[in-house]
Specification:
It is built from 16 helices and no strands. It is mostly helical and about 425 residues long. The chain has 2 domains: about 180 residues, Growth Hormone, Chain: A (Up-down Bundle), CATH 1.20.1250; about 200 residues, MFS general substrate transporter like domains (Growth Hormone, Chain: A, Up-down Bundle).
């Protein structure tokens, strides 16, 4: 493991583009629900539909894009998806200024942005793998993770101030501009990207849509990681939704206290991401992956015991700090392992399948836990999610993976 080495100018532009768009996303965090409520007078059902239906529609639309993007140069795809998000988001302030903004438009923009986001994530993973040698992937993943947590800390408070001064539509403009700047940064990467070898798009068949899932389920390392991350992320997000109801409702916390309880612990993610590479250098990648993946599952059950007042607020912050720190260590190691275990000609399809499944699982479990919260009580449902999270470490890979060839032959279709 080399320390403090540079990854080159081209990676620097990709990193800057990621940081810019991530900051824009967090600046506009919660903007669409606020617009739906404050501008369009939407009720709880419509706001929930905006979050769930838009994301689900985007995930469905992204499924055929994975195989299509696999056999095309990735940098033009990254630029195109950034420009699509830029254009789609700009329609919101334009319609607002003209007085024609509607809930249907918000739903469509949400779906387009979700599909573009999934496609961008998949293509960027494939591009990163082609841009850097294998020994630098963990360094790059840790830097992305650190940047992600930094924007999580900075973005929401600044975005909240911007909403207070100019309204939620202004943060949508900021988010749109961030995607334009990201596209310009990716364009500045330059260099020649060879045309991927493989089948032409015209030969793509319906069965190709499942290639990503087939590849994941056939790999002894990717398969348990796939189920572990989908279940873990889904249960944690379901718990977050219920925690908001508990803290802002029954326990009577102010919105700023709730925001502080979730934003301040993001410092733990930044610290964890910075420590990931040294820990791997000392203890080995597989041990860090399993240990951090196990430890992150231990904390959420503590949220079932949150009470009112300062003690309750400190308990939430402590649990979230420990959880996010473990995630900060786990995420770059897991992202690196996933890239290394995926053949270069399968990365886009695999990452698309992975992201679609994770988003769908999160949406399903969030709805399910909302029902359980109504039937069993919010605190009981949070505790149940915490107990189930204790089981997720059993899905982590238990053996050090064997080396993987750089590419594998395409499956034949009879």
């Amino acid at each position: 493991m080399r320390s403090g080495h540079r990854l080159g100018r081209r990676f620097g532009w990709l990193w800057a583009a990621y940081g810019t768009s991530a900051l824009g996303t967090w600046l506009a965090f919660g903007a669409f629900p606020l617009i739906a409520i404050q501008v369009l007078g939407a009720g709880p059902a419509r706001v929930a539909a905006l979050a769930g239906v838009g994301a689900a529609a985007g995930a469905i639309a992204a499924v055929p894009l994975g195989p299509w993007v696999e056999f095309r140069r990735k940098r033009p795809v990254l630029i195109a998806t950034d420009l699509v998000r830029f254009a789609a988001l700009l329609t919101v302030p334009a319609a607002f200024a003209l007085g024609v903004l509607s809930f249907v438009q918000l739903l469509l923009v949400s779906a387009v942005a979700a599909a573009a986001d999934i496609t961008f994530r998949a293509a960027s993973g494939a591009y990163l793998k082609s841009l850097l040698p294998p020994e630098d992937l963990l360094v790059a993943s840790a830097r992305f993770e650190s940047t992600g947590w930094t924007t999580t800390i900075v973005g929401p408070p600044v975005g909240g101030a911007l909403i207070g001064l100019l309204g939620p539509v202004a943060t949508v403009v900021a988010d749109a501009i961030s995607y334009l700047l990201s596209a310009l940064g990716i364009r500045a990467i330059g260099g020649h990207e060879p045309e991927p070898e493989g089948r032409e798009a015209a030969r793509m068949r319906a069965t190709d849509l499942l290639d990503g899932w087939r590849y994941i389920l056939a790999d002894a390392t990717l398969r348990p990681l796939f189920f572990n991350t989908a279940l873990f992320n889904g249960l944690v997000m379901a718990t977050d939704a219920l925690l908001a109801v508990l803290m802002l409702g029954r326990l009577g916390f102010a919105p700023w206290q709730y925001g502080l309880a979730l934003a301040a612990p993001a410092v733990g993610g930044l610290l964890g991401a910075r420590l990931a590479r040294p820990l791997v250098g000392r203890f080995g990648r597989h041990r860090v992956l399993v240990t951090a993946g196990t430890l992150r599952a231990l904390w959420p059950v503590g949220l079932a015991f949150v009470g009112p007042g300062t003690t309750g607020l400190l308990l939430v912050m402590g649990v979230e700090l420990c959880l996010i720190f473990c995630c900060g260590v786990f995420n770059p190691v897991y992202a690196t392992c996933r890239l290394e275990r995926t053949a270069v000609d399968r990365v886009t399809r695999t990452l698309t399948a992975w992201t679609v499944t994770t988003k769908a699982t999160t949406a399903l479990l969030t709805v399910l836990w909302g029902v359980l919260g109504s039937l069993l009580g919010t605190r009981t449902a949070i505790g149940l999610a915490g107990v189930l999270l204790l089981v997720t470490p059993l899905l982590l890979p238990r053996r050090t993976p064997t080396p993987l060839p750089e590419s594998e032959p395409e499956p034949s279709h009879i």
